[in-house]
Request: fold
Amino acid sequence: MDYNLLENKFLNIIAYDVPFPPNYGGVIDIYYKVKALASLGIRINLHCFVNRNKAYSDELYDICENVYYYKRENGFSYFSSLPHIVNSRRSENLIFNLLQNDHPILFEGIHTCYYLSAPELKNRKKMVRIQDVEPEYYYNLYKNASGLFHKQYFYMESIRLRKYEKILHYADTLITLNIKDQEYYKKLFPEKEIINLAPFSAHSTVDIKEGMGSYALFHSNLTEADNKSAAIFLLKEVVKDTKVPFIIAGKDPDSELKHLCKERKVKILANPSDEKLDELIRNAQVNILVSFMPCGSKIKIYPALYHGRHCLVNSNMVRGSSFADVCHVSDSEDVLRNDLLQLMQQPFTKEEIQRREEVFGEISSEKKAEILSRLF
Reply:
């Protein structure tokens, strides 16, 4: 590819959150996508909606031509026909800034699609990065929520999102995160160009220690209900009675999880630094990751697969990806427990490292950025 030609390319990206620091799934994909595109010479106008707990980021100016910030409206209305995640991300300043150029626009998630059908943008190249099948995601949140308000909110949002999906008709191209989502949208929009492009991440080189570690590790953002449920499931159903040294590491574990770990004599590490978490992943014998959400792309599996030894998961963790070939996959707690015991005794080999390199060599950030650059 002639990178000099790409220096004349511009792209507007609308992000549903400020993608720095890249500390959770969706913004990890956005930040490292911007970084990879910028490394090819593409000049990016980044438009970010600011949540109340997120700050403006000077670091983004290092990789973007321009960075614009818009306040997200957090008030929720029961009477709006629009999904809250969309209705709260609209700004007259955004449409004004988009009209100051004629460059293509990448909408990050259906969250940012309020202006996708705007007549003013009729002749623009428009692409939507599908972060998830959002109606399914919110319906699963509804099923797993506790508390009447949250259940009502997630249920209403899932219904609104199902109706709102037709807005994607106005996009020239849809870009999914996994094959399952691609198949879903091909059925919904058979005439549309829909490509699959795995998430962008910080990890570009497989770097794994051979041999043996001495513990099993579960790492995640423990403020999310699904991740907390997964940690409790592992404690109560998988690691129990195995005598396997087990560590849980992640963001802001609550008192219930801390108490359960103390009761089970399991080490829990709250808010580890990036360096400490990387060290834990590299030195573990088994990285064990499970999810009860059958939708979404689980970006947290990337560091375990790039830098960790054995990876023990359930099928939700590898849904729609090629990662099942380099993981040990089961949805039964008994099989997970037996696999854990076996893997704790099984050295990680050079051949297994080579297999990881084969899988991830196909989806490097540079290659994904090149594919994306051909769309506009």
Summary: The chain has a mean pLDDT of 92. DSSP finds 14 helices and 13 strands in the chain. The longest strand covers residues 43-50.
